[in-house]
Amino acid sequence: MEAGALAAYWPFMAGLAITGIVSGVFAGLLGIGGGAIIVPALAWVLLVLGFDPEIVQHVAVGTSLAIIIPTGLSSARAHFSRGAVDMRVLKLWAAPVFAGTLAGGLMAGLFSGDALRIVFGVLALFIAANILLPFQQRLIGHLSGSSATHRIFAGVVGYLSALMGVGGGSLSVPTIGALGASMHNAVGTGAAIGVFIAISGTIGFIVSGWGVADLPPFSLGFVNLPALVLVGSLAVLCAPLGAALAHRLDQTALKRIFALFLTLVGLNMLWTAFGG
């Protein structure tokens, strides 16, 4: 590759590096998989670098799901070793969540960039509200014994997680908890479910983005390989910094910080989608 062509990629790579560092610190600080951080950050970087606004949200979502595969596997393995994965719930959720996420990924190409921003914005506000005023337990707690309820929610969570570009923890953990699991089991099982979401969602976004014009360099469908490697590795390396900071802060304060962050990001996504 010529020096001039290589130099043109440096802003792109620098933007990815910054995204990885910020995502890792905030993921460790807030105790999340990082998708809620990576998607808006990567989309913003791609917009600033001049890529087509119609595809940057797709690339951010697809790449975020791919990044979650290795981190999700590591997290799920750790929870499984501690006996915190409810195998009954996992068996109920695995197939429908995989199918729902794959459907979301395959259909992603049918949605405009603004449609995906609206999905992300609305769900971010929903998650923020549920953190501050947990209402799922009151709404669906009485359905905890129903296998059909588990499967229906699994499909819905998978589909929405694919369009949002997250591992599903922000949606699956409170749902599984509301359906009767302890918080430790909900978190552990949610981590395992996140692997199914990430794998099937990544496949869907690769297929739906295949052959799309004006993608960032070195993209496989809507999954950008440099972002996958650089953002993913730096996020993993920097997450302990955020985790160390988190232990110095009050947990209630952290929940409020996360809810505030999601509210601001959600409102910004909606503002952008509606032409603000």
From TrEMBL:
UniProt superkingdom: Bacteria
Region forming the signal peptide: none
Record's subcellular location: Cell membrane; Membrane
Keywords: Cell membrane, Membrane, Transmembrane, Transmembrane helix
GO cellular component, one term: plasma membrane
Main location (coarse class): membrane
Annotated TM spans: 7-26, 32-51, 58-80, 92-111, 118-136, 156-179, 191-213, 225-245, 257-274
InterPro entries: TM_pro_TauE-like
Membrane-protein topology: Multi-pass membrane protein
Protein name listed in UniProt: Probable membrane transporter protein
Organism from which the protein derives: Arsenicitalea aurantiaca
Taxonomic placement: Bacteria, Pseudomonadati, Pseudomonadota, Alphaproteobacteria, Hyphomicrobiales
